[in-house]
């Protein structure tokens, strides 16, 4: 099973720099040729495992999975077992040692090794081996946001949490820039004794870079190097250490748990002025670097999960995504299951493949899956045309734009020699006639090439003043540009501008600097945010929550390009990014606050508290967004989550029965859970996946009446009475029994049944419909979202 992982920040066009460099360098001809070269490079990455599987004798990186670690205090014996197992298949101890890449010996049991398909097949039959599967190649997917979410520095609600003091939060990402001011540990107590991790040294990363704030940093490159060869340590853009040279990891970890830093703004522009901090600003942070130029190998990701479990982290934030695959092939799902089983909450990015439905990734029910929304702030530049019409578009310009009037030209009318008008309009490298660009504002329509080529760079290099880019696909947020530019996020507006140019003898325009606007209607689901339903298990509503993920300012690596343009060598301390990568650490940060407030709560309890107190998005500002398939339970409400009243305390046993409901075989269930078959007893009669004790209720293929059971635990006042309120989905009648729950000091856990009955009208046959069950005790409103939809093979799925 082959899949491609993505780093979930910015839309998916914004993939790794290495391939962008390749695509930009290979522009000997038309834009079409460059697009073909780019596509071939991406397909080479995507199909690496497929290429290797052609021959049974050709070596590739395999994960040999042996389930849970039964002997955690005998690590040497476990690692020795891996070596012995390899040697028995490969013929000698020396060969086995050479082939071994990772030993997973902490939270799970297994190893990764360079093997042929036949060797992997032979190993899969060995005693103690649950399965073997290829390691696949993955590439990677603030001020105001925390105030916007109600996590105020002086808020009484957060006094008891002490902003996550001594909770240990971790990211699995591109590493960390340790010198960043967000890791200031002044005034912090000694590192908690439960911490078992370390600060790994490496290229330009001595041990003393860790402190009482950044308490741990590790890097995992063995899987990457086994596939791609030894990392070039002479390349200044790469560091064989936990150091982040891409920016993404520093951005996510400072959003999650960065210390408070005052008087921050975006590169001295006066935009986004304020105090930058992570949600759990007093938490300890640890970085696990798994991503390298062009790839994050799942063998390395699994190793990071294994070590994070060993090290003693409380919350893991992973902003990496993958195309939806069965959980027994999904290394992130497997690693997350073992982490959850050890009491660690895992929050993962849902992906940036929206607005299409059925695109959400990281959909395993034991993962908290994040979607992305806007906040009440945006950054716009105005375009004033010579006909007195003004348009605005998202932009983050750091260079001053002269307020003069300039000629306005359509890039399609000024192609370079041997370039077609269509290709010129994309404004790729060397596509425009420099003589006709100089001194003008140029309108480009880059289409799918945006993110591979940089139109504003081509315009600026040819002497242009500024660039207007027309793009209605995914760029409905402000991007950081190397040179003055603005994105017009509507083809209608773009058509009007082009029409003005082509119908006027001397078209002119001016462009303003980027301005900050507050009080914008929010939250609005980001167009790029991936939607449900959950392809692998559609009876589990995904994503789970939506949180800020648009134009998020956070810490940045000075070694990384702030605009993701390889030619942009400016150094930034803070930068804006958009994507579900950004919403993930926001949710993880709130989870860390809940862990500080309720240290005895399980990952499921924390997850439930976040979901049942979330607020559904306003449909007025989120039309055609697919509703709960976009935001799950709703927008995160940190204050409400601290005191949720009731929680759905899903257990590992519940998850195992859920896997039974998916008709997984005993061996497939063992792959995910790491347990022996004897520990999983699947009912003879298949149960519905809808019966999982989850904080939402979802039913696909809804044709007949169904009844599900839910169990809730009282975490509020010892004595409480909750009454059921029902918001019926269109065409569905929901009945709850009992409709009153009476909790006493001796009765903390109660169950109820919810029966969903189809009515005469059946709108769910053509689309998903949504409702909710709310338990109200006069103080708490515990909301369980309900989603009902068509069959999986329906065109409306």
From TrEMBL:
Keyword Oxidoreductase carried by entry: no
Boundaries of every Subtilisin-like protease fibronectin type-III domain copy: 692-788
InterPro entries documented for this protein: Peptidase_S8/S53_dom, Peptidase_S8/S53_dom_sf, Peptidase_S8_Ser-AS, Peptidase_S8_subtilisin-rel, Peptidases_S8_3, S8pro/Inhibitor_I9, S8pro/Inhibitor_I9_sf, SBT
GO biological process: proteolysis
Alphabetized GO MF terms: serine-type endopeptidase activity
Keywords: Hydrolase, Protease, Serine protease, Signal
Keyword ATP-binding listed: no
Active site: 173 (charge relay system), 248 (charge relay system), 581 (charge relay system)
Record-annotated Peptidase S8/S53 domain positions: 164-625
Annotated family: Belongs to the peptidase S8 family.
Entry protein name: Subtilisin-like protease
Taxonomic source organism: Physcomitrium patens (Spreading-leaved earth moss)
Gene name in the database record: LOC112289299
């Amino acid at each position: 099973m082959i899949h491609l992982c993505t780093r979930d920040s910015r839309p998916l066009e914004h993939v790794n720099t290495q391939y962008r460099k390749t695509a930009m360098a290979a522009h000997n001809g038309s834009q079409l040729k460059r697009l073909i070269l780019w596509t071939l490079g991406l397909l080479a990455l995507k199909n690496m495992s497929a290429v290797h599987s052609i021959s049974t004798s050709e070596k590739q990186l395999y994960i040999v999975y042996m389930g849970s670690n039964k002997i955690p205090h005998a690590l040497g014996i476990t690692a020795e077992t891996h070596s012995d197992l390899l040697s028995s298949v490969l013929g000698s101890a020396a060969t086995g040692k050479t082939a071994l890449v990772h030993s997973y010996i902490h939270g799970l049991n297994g190893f990764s090794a360079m093997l042929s398909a036949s060797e992997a097949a032979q190993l899969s039959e060995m005693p103690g081996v649950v399965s073997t599967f290829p390691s696949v190649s993955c590439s990677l997917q603030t001020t105001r946001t925390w105030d916007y979410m109600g996590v105020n520095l002086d808020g009484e609600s957060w006094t008891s949490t002490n902003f996550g003091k001594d909770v240990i939060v971790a990211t699995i990402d591109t590493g960390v820039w340790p010198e960043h001011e967000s890791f200031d540990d002044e005034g912090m107590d000694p590192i908690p004794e439960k911490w078992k991790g370390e600060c790994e040294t490496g290229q330009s990363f001595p041990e003393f870079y860790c402190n009482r704030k950044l308490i741990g940093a590790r890097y995992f490159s063995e899987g990457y190097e086994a596939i791609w060869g030894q990392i070039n340590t002479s390349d200044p853009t790469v560091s064989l250490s936990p150091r982040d040279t891409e920016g993404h990891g520093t951005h996510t970890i400072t959003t999650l748990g960065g210390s408070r830093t005052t008087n921050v703004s975006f590169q001295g522009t006066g935009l986004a002025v304020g105090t930058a901090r992570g949600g759990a600003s007093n938490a300890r942070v640890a970085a696990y670097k798994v991503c390298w130029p062009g790839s994050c190998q799942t063998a390395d990701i699994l190793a990071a999960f294994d070590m994070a479990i060993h090290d003693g982290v409380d919350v893991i934030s992973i902003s990496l995504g993958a195309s939806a695959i069965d959980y027994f092939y999904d290394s992130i799902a497997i690693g997350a299951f073992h982490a959850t089983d050890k009491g660690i909450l895992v929050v993962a990015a849902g992906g940036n493949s929206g607005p299409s439905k059925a695109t959400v990734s990281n959909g395993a029910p034991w993962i908290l899956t994040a979607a992305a929304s806007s906040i009440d702030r945006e950054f716009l530049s105005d375009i004033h045309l010579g006909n007195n019409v003004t348009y605005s578009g998202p932009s983050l310009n750091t260079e001053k734009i002269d307020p003069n009037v300039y000629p306005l030209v359509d890039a399609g009318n000024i192609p370079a020699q041997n370039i077609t008008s269509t290709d010129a309009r994309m404004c790729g490298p060397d596509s425009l006639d420099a003589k006709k660009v100089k001194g003008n504002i140029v309108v480009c329509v880059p289409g799918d090439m945006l993110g591979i080529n940089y139109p504003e760079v081509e315009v600026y290099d040819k002497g242009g003043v500024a660039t207007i880019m027309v793009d209605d696909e995914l760029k409905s947020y402000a991007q950081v540009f190397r040179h003055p530019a603005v994105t017009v996020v509507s083809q209608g507006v773009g058509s009007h501008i082009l029409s003005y140019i082509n119908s006027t003898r001397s078209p002119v325009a001016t462009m303003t600097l980027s301005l900050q606007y507050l009080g914008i209607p929010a939250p609005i689901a980001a167009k790029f945010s991936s939607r449900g339903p959950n392809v692998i298990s559609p009876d589990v509503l995904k994503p789970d929550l939506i949180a800020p993920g648009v134009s998020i300012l956070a810490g940045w690596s000075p070694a990384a390009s702030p605009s993701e343009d390889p030619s942009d060598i400016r150094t930034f301390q803070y930068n804006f990014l958009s994507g579900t990568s950004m919403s993930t650490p926001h949710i993880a940060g709130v989870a860390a606050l809940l862990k500080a407030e309720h240290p005895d709560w399980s990952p499921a309890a924390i997850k439930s508290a976040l979901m049942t107190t979330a607020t559904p998005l306003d449909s007025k500002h989120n039309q055609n967004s697919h509703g709960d398939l976009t935001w799950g339970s709703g927008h995160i409400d940190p204050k409400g989550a601290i005191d949720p009243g009731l929680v759905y305390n899903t257990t590992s046993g519940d998850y195992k029965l859920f896997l039974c409901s998916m008709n997984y075989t005993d061996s497939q269930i063992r792959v995910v859970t790491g347990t022996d078959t004897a520990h999983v007893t699947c009912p003879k009669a298949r149960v519905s996946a809808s019966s999982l004790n989850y904080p939402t209720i979802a039913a696909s293929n809804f044709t007949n009446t169904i009844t599900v059971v839910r169990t809730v635990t009282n975490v509020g006042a010892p004595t409480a009475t909750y009454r059921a309120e029902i918001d019926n989905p269109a065409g569905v009648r929901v009945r709850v029994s009992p409709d009153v729950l009476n909790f006493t000091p001796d009765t903390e856990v109660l169950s109820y049944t919810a029966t969903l009955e189809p009515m005469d009208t059946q709108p769910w046959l053509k689309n998903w419909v949504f409702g909710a069950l709310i338990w109200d005790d006069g103080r708490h409103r515990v909301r369980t979202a309900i989603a009902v939809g068509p069959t999986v093979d329906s065109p409306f799925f």
